[in-house]
């Protein structure tokens, strides 16, 4: 990538005891990009972020920031700054003093400190709270103090380690919008680590999905969701129905296979697959009908469970061979509910183009 601000080249991190936290990872992260490292606990995403920041050193590989290999450069010599999950603001200092601290210790002149702190306060909308101390503020406000303190030093790359995990659900939603707006305003590269799929999908321009120290796929949120390359990515990004299938033959871009509970069918495939595959269909792509539809793919079953979530209802339908299908139904009227109940016979149907063939 020609405009990469961060290039990770064959980076491995092995800890004593034979634990390899990051295994030969290569990534390019663009200038002014909002990039997410996403994966389950223990996948290596935080270790990778800490190596970018300089808090961990790689066992091998290069970490190039702004064209310079900084794999073994101390954190204070890198053009990066980090916002931690715990905020790490000083409780005995005011908001203004917290933000100014990093500039003071590096010897920035007092006039410039005042100007830059004022700009940072305005950026995170905390000007009116400049004289407050952290214990007089909400969690979201303290998080914004931590962001301002990091941004005031004008790093080329801002690193965010699970920055919203300590906030309640409503505040997390608000802060996602704040972070996206802030990144667009300051125009620098943000790299966020998260295990929350919704967080990554709603904020990042690109996402690297990690598992067991390796990067499984790097793509835009829409591409990851609609075109996952593996069973792991499909299952980790959002909800999905995964149906086992056995391939009989592949003709061009179509796969002729025997699908559990559905019988023989042809499904489009982006590439060559093995003998055993999974057919993936997102729950919102499935439709429920009380009478047999004319759809190309349809299966008869019985409603096993219905869960109401306000805007949607989640319906589980049990079909032949123990096949369980999860269906998301949009609750479009004030009557609420999915329009079906437990034990009711129904048909589930979907379009062939909404099926994804996964060989891993």
Write a compact overview of the structure shown.
By secondary structure, the protein is of the alpha+beta class. It has eight helices and 20 strands.
Describe this structure in words.
Helix 5 links the parallel strand 7 and strand 8 (189-194). The strands form four sheets. The protein has a six-stranded mixed sheet with strand order 6-7-8-3-9-10, sandwiched between helices. It has a five-stranded antiparallel sheet with strand order 13-12-11-14-20. The chain is built from eight helices and 20 strands. The protein folds into two domains: 4-231, Rossmann fold; 239-358, Nucleic acid-binding proteins (OB fold (Dihydrolipoamide Acetyltransferase, E2P), Beta Barrel), CATH 2.40.50. It is an alpha+beta fold.
Q: Give the radius of gyration.
A: 25 Å
Number of domains: 2
Shape assignment: globular
Q: Could you list the spans in which at least 5 consecutive residues all have pLDDT below 50?
A: none
Biggest sheet, open or closed, and with what strands and sense? 6 strands, mixed
Gap between N and C termini, in Å?
28 Å
SSE topology string = EEEHEEEHHHEHEHEEHHEEEEEEEEEE
Strand order of the largest sheet: 6-7-8-3-9-10
How many β-strand stretches?
Answer: 20
CATH class identity of the largest domain: Alpha Beta
Average pLDDT value?
91
Report the CATH superfamily of the largest domain: P-loop containing nucleotide triphosphate hydrolases
């Amino acid at each position: 990538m020609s405009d990469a601000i961060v290039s990770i080249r064959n980076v491995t991190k092995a800890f004593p005891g034979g634990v390899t936290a990051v295994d030969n990872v290569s990534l390019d992260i663009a200038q002014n990009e909002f990039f997410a490292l996403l994966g389950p606990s223990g996948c290596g995403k935080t270790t990778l972020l800490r190596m970018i920041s300089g808090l961990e050193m790689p066992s091998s590989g290069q970490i190039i920031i702004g064209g310079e290999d900084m794999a073994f450069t101390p954190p204070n010599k890198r053009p990066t700054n980090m916002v931690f999950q715990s905020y790490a603001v000083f409780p005995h200092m005011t908001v203004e003093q917290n933000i100014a601290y990093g500039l003071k210790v590096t010897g920035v002149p007092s006039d410039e400190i005042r100007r830059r702190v004022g700009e940072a306060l305005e950026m995170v909308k905390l000007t009116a709270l400049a004289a407050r101390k952290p214990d007089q503020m909400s969690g979201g406000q303290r998080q914004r103090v931590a962001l301002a303190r990091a941004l005031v030093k004008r790093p080329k790359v801002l690193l965010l380690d699970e920055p919203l995990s300590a906030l309640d659900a409503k505040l997390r939603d608000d802060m996602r919008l704040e972070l996206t707006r802030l990144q667009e305003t300051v125009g620098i590269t943000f790299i966020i680590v998260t295990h929350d799929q919704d967080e990554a999908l709603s904020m990042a321009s690109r996402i690297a999905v990690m598992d067991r120290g390796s990067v499984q796929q790097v793509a835009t949120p829409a591409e990851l969701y609609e075109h996952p390359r593996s069973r792991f990515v499909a299952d980790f990004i959002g909800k999905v129905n995964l149906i086992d299938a056995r391939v009989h033959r592949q003709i061009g871009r179509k796969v002729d296979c025997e699908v559990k509970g559905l019988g023989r069918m042809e499904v489009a495939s982006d590439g060559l697959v093995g003998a055993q595959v999974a057919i993936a269909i997102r729950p919102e792509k499935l439709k429920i009908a009380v009478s047999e539809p004319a759809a190309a793919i349809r299966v008869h079953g019985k409603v096993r469970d219905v869960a109401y979530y306000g805007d949607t209802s989640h319906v589980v339908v049990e079909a032949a061979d123990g096949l369980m299908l999860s269906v998301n139904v949009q609750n479009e009227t004030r009557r609420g509910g999915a329009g079906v109940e437990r034990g009711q016979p129904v048909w589930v149907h979907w379009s062939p183009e909404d099926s994804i063939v996964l060989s891993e």
